[in-house]
Specification:
single chain, 307 residues, three-stranded mixed sheet, 3% strand, glycoprotein
Length: 307
């Protein structure tokens, strides 16, 4: 068995079950891609160009928009070419590079929500110390550990995936998702599953618990003193909406590979795609609509451009 060479080139066959209807998926995914690019670019431009928005929360929102802008670029163009022109081939190196960038930027979707939750916690629970705590030098102690954590965990499981030998080369996906590639390997993949589960536990699950703890303290503080409660709750509810959508899609996608639920392959691929692409379209619209200052500046910018 040792003489069998490992595959170094893969075929991405996501949504193959749809047959001739498969190219039709190009339209909704292309439209979502355009919305993600335009909405996030507009959000970043507005925050950078308006001095009044150079505040910690607005900068964090712009940072998340940068993540949401970069993330689709690493997999959607390739996926669109696959759907429309049947360009399904990808080399192992390209696959691993794509996988690393997808999961790396994907990890920051929840990490930015942690930083936003900390911002709200400082603003509402320690308002007198807010500007001191949110000064860059002080806030770096929250930024650096989580950024290093994301880099190390993502690099770890991608490296393990790169060391596997592959007996099959047809991947039932539209891009290189970690477990979709691992499923093609020969022999035991226990270490890969463990590394993937560690990444899930220490990134989105850990982030979820930190965010939940922050908002629990925030809500209890607001209920005790109703002074600035309405505005505080308004901002927090925006973050909770984003977190709920992002985590629901992500957990369905992750667990679909580990729980034999009889879920159709096309549905599993759909959720794996949407947990990355949908937040890129959804988040800038939500923040643009629900954050009053950003909404006003976005409308002014669009009105100015229209004239």
């Amino acid at each position: 068995m040792q003489n069998i060479s490992s595959h170094k080139h893969f075929i991405l066959s996501g949504f193959e079950e749809l047959g001739e209807l498969r190219p039709v998926l190009f339209i909704p995914f292309f439209l979502m891609f355009i919305v993600a690019l335009l909405a996030n670019s507009l959000l970043v431009y507005v925050v950078i160009s308006q001095r009044s928005l150079h505040q910690p929360m607005s900068i964090l929102i712009a940072g998340m928009a940068c993540v949401e802008l970069c993330l689709p670029v690493f997999f959607v163009p390739n996926m669109l070419l696959n759907l429309l022109f049947d360009w399904k081939g990808i080399s192992l190196i390209s696959c691993l590079v794509q996988m690393h960038f997808i999961h790396f930027f994907g990890a920051f979707q929840t990490t930015f929500l942690v930083w936003m939750a900390l911002d709200r916690y400082f603003a509402i629970c320690t308002p007198l110390s807010y500007h001191e705590l949110m000064a860059l030098q002080r806030f770096l102690k929250f930024i650096i550990p989580l950024a290093v954590r994301n880099m190390l965990l993502i690099t770890l499981f991608v490296s393990f995936a790169g060391k596997l030998s592959f007996c099959r080369n047809v991947m039932n996906h539209c891009f290189c998702e970690h477990m979709a590639l691992v499923e093609l390997a020969c022999g035991s993949t226990a270490i890969n599953s463990l590394a993937g589960l560690m990444a899930i536990f220490f990134i989105p699950v850990f982030d979820f618990f930190v965010i939940t703890a922050s908002y629990t303290v925030i809500f209890s503080s607001v209920l005790r003193s109703s002074s600035s409660g309405v505005k505080a709750l308004h901002t927090c509810i925006t973050h909770i909406i984003v977190l709920t959508f992002s985590l629901t899609l992500a957990l369905i996608a992750f667990l679909s590979y580990r729980v034999k639920s009889g879920l159709p392959e096309a549905i599993r691929v759909f959720f794996s795609t949407m947990y990355l692409l949908f937040p890129s379209c959804f988040n800038p619209i939500i923040y643009g609509i629900r954050t009053t200052e950003i909404r006003q500046h976005m409308l002014k910018t669009l009105t100015h451009w229209a004239h």
